[in-house]
Amino acid sequence: MWDAARSAWRSPRLFAAVVLTLAVILGGFYRFHRLARWDMNGDEGTAWAAVVKPTLRQVAATFWLLENGGKFPLYDILLHEWVRVFGDSLFALRAMSAALGTIAIVLLFLAVSEICRSLGGEASAEAGEVGGAFAALIYALNLTMVLSDRTAREFPLLTVAELAQIIFFVRAQRRATWVDYLGIAVFTAMILPINYTASFLLFAEALWLGGLLLAKWAGSARAGAAAIFRPGIAVMAGIALLAPLLPGVFVSSRGAIQTGAVRWIKLQPISWPFTVLRDVAGRPALFRIFAALIAFGVWRQWRSARLASGFLAAWMLGPVLAVFLVTYLIEPMEFPRYVLIAFVGMFAFAGFGAGAVRSTAVRILLAVLIVHLSAPVLHNSLKVLREGAWREATAVADQAAAGDQIAVCPSFKLSVVRFYLPPERRAAAVGMEDKCSRAPVLILSGWGIVSNEEIAMAQACYPRVLAHLNRVEVRAR
Question: Please, what sign has the CA dihedral across residues 455, 459, 461, 467?
Fold first, then answer.
């Protein structure tokens, strides 16, 4: 019994299984707990307005009418089918994202494990499992990822598809099977229509393959053993599958920029690539732990898993660099939501370093520290109301309107108000563009998002305040 206990204590695989189980349990809890606590936001209202249409054709038509551009309605089509089964309550709408976020915890474990096995060899396989479990735990308890996974938007689906693409991508560098190449092509073709920010991951993979090719030309035996051209061709094949759609993506993306859909994103300081990675950790102590683990992992596994370190560095830094270049060459795009996959890469890199720790006691201490520093931030943040009190504001406005119309400013919040109105009253909600509406009541929000002139005009048209709520006002003439 003593020998069995000592063997279990020292078993990396058992430790990884325990930590992964803990990550899935905690991650699932924080993603599903009181999922409808906050009222619907404007982005979710846009998704809801599309997915509740009775047919897929109408879903697609509404998507093109409401969305800014740069993507196709793949997420909306999936959510439409989900709503047909589970209904369109706020909990049901967000539950698909929460489920996808929980799946992503397991996929991140598999991705880190596969990176270590494929690029570090079988000698790194056990460390890769431990590292994958730590990465999964960090992801499961990260506030930014939890908030994303609690929102009815396409980013959880994108993260899942990107992780699947990464798994097939690194597998194809170790062995040549048609299943891996097919997986690369299929998931590459899938991620790009979900959101144009998926191109930032492809930029990171291009950097990695380019660096690997240079190392191979320089005579590196490790780089020479990894497949370069065939995985790259598989990525290009996935892009080629989208060839008929790419002109539409380009036109819609260009239209989004020209119409100012991303103009609210302000130019950030030159230090943004560093600060965005630092801030996503949630607490300075956690970021220092991540940085220390990354440095330790690179040092400890430099000889055995140098290529794994290189790929993880490209995964973490590539998307941030891509956004940085787009910002200074085209349009400001420095917004944390657009580099979520880079955050996941940092968690994977930190997990890689934790996997290099050999002492079971130190591993347990690391796991306890991650939970201790992450859980209170999550617990406290989930109590704070992050959205406007749209449910209450809609009820007040509906009563004050007495069957008449209800104006909404800004207009992109229209779908939120319609969601909270009774079905027979949804057509009563109307937008308020550049002139006073004839509606007797206005629901006003958007401070810091829409122009001060638009806010001032709305307040002048509706001078009486009926209710001042969290981030929302109900006003009358």
Answer: positive
Exposure string for 121-133, b = 16+ CB within 10 A, e = fewer:
beebbbbbbbbbb
* 14 & 96 share domain: yes
469: three-class secondary structure by DSSP: strand
Indicate if 42 and 102 belong to the same structural domain.
yes
Q: Please provide the DSSP assignment of 44-100 as one string.
A: HHHHHHHHTSSSHHHHHHHHHHHS-SSS-THHHHHHHHHHHHH-SSHHHHHHHHHHH
Q: Do 455 and 465 meet the contact criterion of CB atoms below 8 Å apart? A: no
Alpha carbon separation from 352 to 107, 167, 230, 368 (Å, rounded):
15, 15, 26, 17
Angle between helices 306-329 and 198-217 (to 10 degrees): 130
DSSP code of 305?
Answer: S
The pLDDT tens digits of the residues spanning 221-255 come to 677 778 888 999 999 999 998 877 666 665 555 55
Identity of the residue numbered 126: E
* Helices 74-86 and 42-51: angle between axes, nearest 10 degrees: 70
Examine the fold and report which residue of 381, 403, 418 is the final residue of a domain before the chain moves on. 381
Q: Which of 332, 353, 381 is the last residue of a domain?
A: 381
CA 259 vs. chain centroid, Å, equals: 24
- Domain span at residue 62 reads 2-381
DSSP run (H or E) holding 364? helix 360-381
458 Cβ partners below 8 Å, 6+ apart? 409, 432, 442, 444, 475
Residue 224 and residue 348 in one domain = yes
Tell me: do 368 and 397 sit in the same domain. no
The tally of domains found in the chain comes to 2
Judgement on whether residues 19 and 147 belong to the same structural domain of the protein:
yes
Q: Which tens digits make up the pLDDT trace of 311-347?
A: 999 999 999 999 999 888 888 888 888 999 999 999 9
The pTM of the full predicted model, rounded to 2 decimals, is 0.92
Residues 6+ away with beta carbon under 8 Å from 257: 330, 331
Distance between alpha carbon 423 and the CA centroid of its chain, in Å?
A: 32
Q: Are residues 81 and 165 in the same domain?
A: yes
